[in-house]
Amino acid sequence: MDMIGSSAxxxxxxxxxxxxxxxxxxGSIAQPAPILDAAAKADIARIETYLNDxxxxxxxxxxxxxxxxxxxxxxxxxxxxxxxxxxxxxPVLMVASGIMLMYHDTxxxxxxxxxxxxxxxxxxxxxxxxxxxxxxxxxxxxGPASIRLTLLQAEAPDAGSVTLTFxxxxxxxxxWTVQDAQGNNVDVALLEPQFGVEVDEELFSLIDxxxxxxxxxxx
Length: 219
Hints:
Layout: H1 6-10, H2 12-15, H3 38-53, E1 56-65, E2 68-77, E3 81-86, E4 92-97, E5 100-105, E6 110-115, E7 135-142, E8 146-153, E9 161-167, E10 172-179, E11 185-195, H4 214-217
Antiparallel strand pairs: 1-2, 1-11, 2-3, 3-4, 4-5, 5-6, 7-8, 8-9, 9-10, 10-11
């Protein structure tokens, strides 16, 4: 169990993404808040309601970044739980549950634990999502059938920002972009997401996978 994490440093380029996690950013992302008209405020209220009504999500995803393209599976169970599994050759498993996030390098068999609060989208795992107060809206765009909303944590602007993209009519989360303090972007698009599905709560265990299965060791 590595609390600082050579594996996290080695895999930081992947840690940017699917879990909306960003580690090791420096500097500050200071952006003026946009001027929102009544229609924009109504859309933001709809998004807030949508996110609070979101219970579970299971989806394949594809990730685009300067390091290349990666794919994997994402499982969300609100509030509090998130699991990201990357397909080989990316040796990364991430699990968030409660206040902690586990990053496991399946190749080096090393595990790092981080506070969920240090991630730019920890708000998504909270019991009640509020797109105000500690969450600052720094961008809003409306297209013919989409809405883009850029957010950062007011108390941790150095953690980076996240831009959520929604399809509209009906409203549905479709993709997001994580940007670090240096302006590096990682895009994640959901592939055939399933909402409101049953999920196995054991998938959100924070037990270090490097320790193996205690039950198997007694057989």
